[in-house]
TrEMBL record, chains A, B:
This is Hydroxymethylglutaryl-CoA lyase. Belongs to the HMG-CoA lyase family. The keyword Iron does not apply. CDD domains: DRE_TIM_HMGL. Residues 5-274 form the Pyruvate carboxyltransferase domain.
Amino acid sequence: MGEPVSICEVGPRDGLQMQKAIMPTAVKIEWIVALARAGLREIEVGSFVPPKLIPQMADTGEVVAASRTLEGVSIVALVPNLKGAQRAYESGADAINVPVSVSEAHSRANTNKGSLEQVAEVRAIVDWVRAQERPMKIDAGCATAFGCSIEGTVPIDRVVTVASALAEAGVDGIVLADTVGYGNPAQVRAVVRAVRGAVGGVLDRLHLHDTMGLGIANALAGVEEGIRCFDSALGGLGGCPFAPGASGNIVTEDLVFMLESMGFETGIDLDLLFAAREVLQRGLPETALLGNVAKAGIPKTYHRAA
Amino acid sequence: MGEPVSICEVGPRDGLQMQKAIMPTAVKIEWIVALARAGLREIEVGSFVPPKLIPQMADTGEVVAASRTLEGVSIVALVPNLKGAQRAYESGADAINVPVSVSEAHSRANTNKGSLEQVAEVRAIVDWVRAQERPMKIDAGCATAFGCSIEGTVPIDRVVTVASALAEAGVDGIVLADTVGYGNPAQVRAVVRAVRGAVGGVLDRLHLHDTMGLGIANALAGVEEGIRCFDSALGGLGGCPFAPGASGNIVTEDLVFMLESMGFETGIDLDLLFAAREVLQRGLPETALLGNVAKAGIPKTYHRAA
């Protein structure tokens, strides 16, 4: 049996929020069910943000409520603040993902707060969640950890500072996010090593984008550095607000293909993933889905690690 | 200064031979000149094969003759046999690339010969070339070294057998080619190590395709294993005859971006590469060029290693 690697599908959140079209709630739920059927055990189904800012996510409460009945699947919601965390808890989410931008400029542009002010918000979320009856996992993402479209280069010691503050705040997991997709494999190795040196195993996930075509290579560097959880999106859904036409999140199908081919066990079935892709395409008929394995077909040399 | 990595642009050969349209000779030459201007120091400009089989390559003699005047650029031609090698020599090529398919079935389908019969042809080419006045470099490619669309899995010991026979035949360099793009990074590491263990430094190049989306990750594995020469194609030109719509060679632009970002020195300028891309697009107006860096634009974090 291969070593397990967990993939969190973020298409319903990070993918859909970049789409002009708003996917109907029923199709979202059908898509999430198809993803669970393909073997995904973590799905980020939406975000609790003001609907005026991101109307695509206005139905997240309803989507979480419908998804949480899926057995063995952790339903994740992105929340920017305590209010969002409270809404996520009330809707029944299993886990929340709170982004903190390492780039000060990016942080202010997104949350009107500096990075360390946003860490204080994370601390308030941790305090509130821990006081509730039901447990809810709290992940915090170091956004723009590999570069920023506003500030440019993001120094590694700055990533270490923010990650250390998040670990001290008591989150369950820390994600390093290449929000704009500027990272390269050598940098992934260096940042993972530096942050792990500071916070240890609480660093457990990478969130990578394929803006420059290096997303899967960056995932390779990550898995070789010992990371065992990755975010990705079916059909590479997503994009970059600063680069129209650019690629989005790394493609779930291709990531599964690579990891299984290398002997890692994702628990995900490619054929059922293609079936989920059909649901997605039906929900977004105007969107060109990415993904090389889906286009070329599964080769006869492919065997799942399981 | 970063460690140098050499990129051989194979678009004019491996890319164009897969196109339905035939690029006019003058545009080919204009494209090759633009590639040289961007810093490419090895360009595979065509192949000496029967024009009835591959009409796109009928003008290779003329293209080689025009390209060889480019200063400091090694002009490479693919040749399947002694006759092709003689034509390459007469046209003034600096180097030839002779493919030998490791998969017996693929070898017979492409050359009407088994793998080791084709090695005998390579031996005849080496003998003939070494007897000429002018030196001409001889590279031999282990095609289908990472899997075959006909046979499926290609055992590593079979790759080692063919590579060892090629080394014994006296070629200058050996290329491991993922002809159909089935390889994964763990396999790249394993095959490179096994072949290098058998033939040493004469193994000096990888030829990778992006059929399954792992091409750049496979290149990363290769460079981390010490390989310092890679084939790639501008705009990811190429494709796979067995998978219509599949991606072709790894994208030169994205490969340069990764290597330079990691501190390797390719000698290639991305902006001038984009200029060459415009020439290519003009020559193939119906073809959708691939490449994430070209779509997203060069990020402000990018610095050439040089």
